[in-house]
Amino acid sequence: MSPFFVMSLLFGLIFGQTASLCAPSEYTIHVEKRECAYCLAINTTICAGFCMTRDSNGKKLLLKSALSQNVCTYKEMLYRTALIPGCPHHTIPYYSYPVAVSCKCGKCNTDYSDCVRERVRTNYCTKPQKICNL
What we know:
By secondary structure, the protein is mainly beta. The protein has one helix spanning 3-15; strands at 21-32, 39-50, 71-83, 94-106, 129-133. It has a 3-stranded mixed sheet with strand order 1-2-5, with no helix packed on it.
């Protein structure tokens, strides 16, 4: 291996995370319940952006720990609860949702993230809409 290749490889492994553009991003969630009169549009933040990944073409030359497919995921998050308007008394009118406080590039945690496939795009209202800015 040439010295240039080795230095490039080491530089990429050490400083790869600094080139990542993973940060909290504004996002609107639309929430409705069949029993309630309104759809609630909630403005929140999610983690989104680019994370540096390492190509596995050289996997025979590198340690497994050096080969990673990082995603933009939550470093810190909190949950807030919103009240869905127009719900009858027998219905629970609350909806809890995550708010990204800070983000990081790392392994996807399936406890709170969908790591495998893109979700079906159904983020819209079918009822009259109320906006919640928390």
